[in-house]
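Example record used in the benchmark description.
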Amino acid sequence: MSTAPVPALKPELEQPLLAVEACLKQLGDALASRDPALIEQHASELHQLLALAVQAFGEAARQGSLPATLRHRLVRAGGLLAAQRETLARGNASLDRALEVLIPSEPTGLYGAGGKPERRGLGASSLQA
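Model output (structure tokens):
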């Protein structure tokens, strides 16, 4: 049984994808360790690397020379990025809920800290009869 030779991967496509994959792993590790400085650093780096990769892959796609193996790796990297984005969004939503409990946006009691009744202002968001 003979197998078709695997075409050589073009370095102008392979290198940006390798960099994106490595940075995604580093960002995942930073998210797992909950290190805000590393998360910010790797997110910024990933943003730049993705821009370069998109440019390189866009050019290759226009020329019709995008190898299937790289296309599959790019799709897999995109899936990993989406999963990390979803994890971060869930973490933000959880933090927002916790902050809302600790620091409510609307007064909830009838009396203020000094024992006096709280009054809501007649701002644009209040209902009037």
